[in-house]
């Protein structure tokens, strides 16, 4: 996937200068992130992204076009972020830029840090958008890197809204992941491993139905719920919802967990032919 100077400056305006010297200086960093993008999308899909206009139009054309746009944005932002410590940032009439000119004042450390933060967050936001497109192309089934994003029901930063996090970023997601993975077995215990695996697969392949999506969102709320009584109430809400739509949750309905959830202890009654004296 070739990235032009025009594309780079579209995603990274701070790198726009009269010539392409800055863009060319990023080549090693760009290559590193291109290699990551290729592993994420799989070589079979990634290597097609520059020849889409010469291929017959298929139902995947719009998704592949969007995928290329997000991958280019990811590569440009994260490569520029990596390169910033080696570049000369200066103040310009439009804010700041990257040039070598003694007549311009150096950008402050605060402004450089703000730029790096913005590039970092934007780059990983593009990553999540690319991940979303890849779901519809079946890539998580073929790419280990892509599949690794679907180890839990929280695969994009926006899912963290249930924790009350305002404007969550991908870094917030990485920070929250250990806590989520630690809590996950408690959800699986009453949901069943089979149903949980089905949820992960449907999310990774973009085949989640609206009803299943509601249950998955209820599960996300379970992670954010505090206190045993509140968690037990949310657990019952999830189970009752799934049992109201058995055709949507066959894995749970056919599981030993479902049978265990509905197991009734034997009551020793006098009118029962199996009554035990004691």
Notable characteristics:
278 residues; mainly alpha; 2 domains; two-stranded antiparallel ribbon; 3% strand; elongated; disordered C terminus
3D architecture notes:
The chain is mainly α. The protein has helices at residues 5-11, 21-25, 27-41, 43-46, 61-83, 109-136, 144-147, 170-191, 193-204, 210-224, 228-244, 250-253, 256-261; strands spanning 89-92, 95-98. It has 2 domains: 5-143, no CATH class; 157-261, no CATH class. Helix content is 58%, strand content 3%. It has a two-stranded antiparallel ribbon. The longest helix is centred in the middle third of the chain and has 28 residues, at 109-136. The relative contact order is 0.08. Mean pLDDT is 87; it is low at 90-97, 99-105 and 274-278.
Topology, pairings included?
Elements lengths: L4 H7 L9 H5 L1 H15 L1 H4 L14 H23 L5 E4 L2 E4 L10 H28 L7 H4 L22 H22 L1 H12 L5 H15 L3 H17 L5 H4 L2 H6 L17
Number of strands: 2
Q: Structurally, how many domains make up the residues?
A: 2
The helix fraction, in percent, is: 55-70%
Give the helices and strands as they follow along the chain: HHHHHEEHHHHHHHH
The profile of the biggest β sheet is:
2 strands, antiparallel
What percentage of the residues does DSSP assign to strands (E)?
under 5%
Q: Please state the CA-atom Rg, rounded to the nearest Å.
A: 25 Å
Number of helices: 13
Question: How much is the average pLDDT?
Answer: 87
* Structure classification: mainly alpha
Q: Low-confidence stretches at least 5 residues in length (pLDDT < 50)? A: 90-97, 99-105, 274-278
* Spatial strand sequence of the major β-sheet: 1-2
């Amino acid at each position: 996937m070739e990235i032009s100077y025009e594309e780079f400056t579209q995603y990274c305006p701070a790198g726009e200068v009269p010539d392409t010297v800055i863009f060319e200086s990023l080549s090693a960093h760009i290559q590193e992130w291109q290699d990551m993008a290729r592993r994420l999308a799989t070589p079979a899909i990634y290597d097609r992204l520059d020849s889409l206009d010469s291929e017959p139009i298929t139902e995947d054309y719009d998704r592949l076009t969007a995928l290329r746009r997000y991958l280019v944005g990811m590569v440009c932002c994260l490569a520029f972020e990596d390169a910033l410590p080696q570049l000369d940032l200066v103040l310009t009439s439009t804010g700041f830029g990257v040039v070598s000119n003694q007549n311009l004042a150096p950008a402050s450390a605060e402004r450089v840090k703000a730029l790096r933060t913005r590039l970092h967050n934007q780059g990983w936001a593009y990553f999540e958008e690319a991940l979303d497109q890849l779901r519809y192309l079946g890539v998580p089934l073929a790419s280990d890197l892509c599949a690794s994003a679907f180890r839990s029901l929280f695969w994009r930063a926006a899912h963290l809204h249930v924790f009350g996090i305002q404007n969550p970023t991908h870094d917030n997601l990485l920070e929250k992941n250990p806590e989520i993975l630690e809590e996950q077995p408690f959800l699986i215990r009453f949901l069943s491993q089979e149903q949980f695996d089905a949820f992960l697969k449907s999310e990774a392949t973009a085949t989640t139905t609206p009803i299943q999506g509601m249950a998955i969102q209820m599960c996300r709320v379970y992670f954010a719920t505090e206190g045993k009584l509140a968690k037990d109430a949310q657990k019952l809400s999830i189970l009752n919802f799934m049992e109201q739509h058995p055709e949507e949750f066959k894995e749970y309905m056919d599981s030993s967990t479902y049978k265990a959830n509905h197991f009734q202890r034997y009551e020793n009654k006098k009118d029962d032919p199996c009554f035990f004296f004691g």
